[in-house]
Amino acid sequence: MWMYQLAPAGTPISIPDLAYWLHAQFNQSGVLEEFRQSICDRYGVRYCFFVSTGRAAFSLVLEAMRECASTEKDEVVIPSYTCYSVPASVARAGLKVRICDIDPRTLDYDYIALEQADFTRVLCVASANLYGIPNDLPRLGAIARKNGALVLDDAAQSMEASIQGDFSGTLGDVGIFSLDKGKNITSIDGGIIVTNRDDLGSLLQAKVAALPEPSLKTRSLYLIKLLVYSSFLHPRLYWIPNGIPWLNLGSTRYTVNFLKESYPVFLASVGKRLFDRVGLITASRIEKAQYLIKKIKGLDNIQLITNPSYISPVYLRLPLLIKRDHRDKLMIRLKQAGIGASTSYPTSIVDIPNIDSNLFRGSCHSEAGRWVAKMILTLPTHSYVTKADLDRIVLKFR
Ligand SMILES: Cc1ncc(COP(=O)(O)O)c(C=O)c1O
User: Taking CA 208 as the corner, what is the angle to CA 129 and CA 173, rounded to the nearest 5 degrees?
Assistant: First the structure.
């Protein structure tokens, strides 16, 4: 059993996927065009651009928004608990962060706090849609609009989630998706920008066209990562990379020195192939999460995330809130059982160890964000999770 280790997140890339990838090398830009068209058709967007990472997408969008808005607007509202890449992208765009605390019951913004925020210099409000659970975008959008701010619908973690039939990523002025390794679909790395706004669309088109191409070294690294990821994500093999300390799998680091380059076109065929079956991949995640929710609901010390009924999550992972002592014990037990649970981002945004305090503007009230950082545990929902794994997880909780 010790050799069986489920990764906390991931999307398997199969041998037929690799065969398709190899075959598609003869028509790389044609496949990228097909991928772009599939995104535009499915999400009903006119503009769709590919870049090196979700972070690059996020910061390019902010740069474009800044050029569209009045010059004194230089702040981006982000939640007190989210992925460290979010403040890093704001910093990289040369803008400031305005923190708004979250509601720990939903992991969404605390909308009373958002209503009361000082919007004088706010350029945009970013959604987070963590773990595939969409934020209440209609409510967020209404507050942003009332205060003259734009909305960046960050669907890095929530591709295919929806609100009343509208897809996550399409519910703001501009949206982004991530094609990183732990996301709903992956091409190892990559970011997608979508919008229906002509002004932002043309600005972004120029910005994306001006990005440098990935170097030969970077492309070689992508190739190695693709082969390693597709081989070692399997639970019978994942213990190997997971046991190599310098790989630091699943660790959360804050850095503003991320790649801001063109998308590595030779990886588009992997993303396109997974996007062709994104409905199936998503349905399987939802089914697993719902099974766990049904079994775990009502247990002592465990709090499930609750959302309005009009929100349809995709559960990239299943987040739970658990009292700290209990959480740490449970993590050990799950690890011993080969289940890749995760304690997710270890701190709220304001407590990130090496973050520049000059990045923040206004009150950094983050009580709920800090509380969630201490209590959160996420469970895997990906395709390698079997019914037997789900039952073992439930057993550990009981
Ligand atoms: C909410 C959120 N936004 C943006 C990003 C950045 O995406 P990428 O890892 O592709 O740079 C991430 C990455 O995990 C994320 O979770």
Answer: 40
Q: Calculate the alpha carbon distances from 97 to 81, 147, 357, 360, 394 in Å.
A: 13, 17, 10, 5, 39
Query: Structural domain of residue 160, as residue ranges?
Result: 15-209
Give the domain CATH number at 185: 3.40.640.10
Number of domains in the chain: 2
Asked whether 83 lines ligand 1 (CB < 6 A), one says yes
Q: Is the pTM of this model over 0.85?
A: yes
**Looking at ligand 1, which residue's alpha carbon is closest to its atom 7?**
54
Clarify whether residues 236 and 151 are in a common domain. Answer: no
Distance 300 CA to ligand 1 centre (A): 32
Instruction: Tell me the pLDDT tens digit for each residue of 203-230.
Output: 999 999 999 999 999 999 999 989 988 8
53-67 residue pLDDT tens: 999 999 999 999 999
Please, what is the Cα angle at 392 between 390 and 393, to 5 degrees? 65
Please report the atom of ligand 1 found closest to the CA of residue 157: 16
State in Å: Cα 55 to ligand 1 middle.
Answer: 6
Integer Cα distance of 340 and 8 in angstroms = 4
> How far is ligand 1, taken at its centre, from the CA of residue 133, in Å?
14
Q: Which of 180, 187, 225 to mutate to test the pocket of ligand 1 (most atoms within 8 A of CB)?
A: 180
Structure tokens at 39: 């995104």
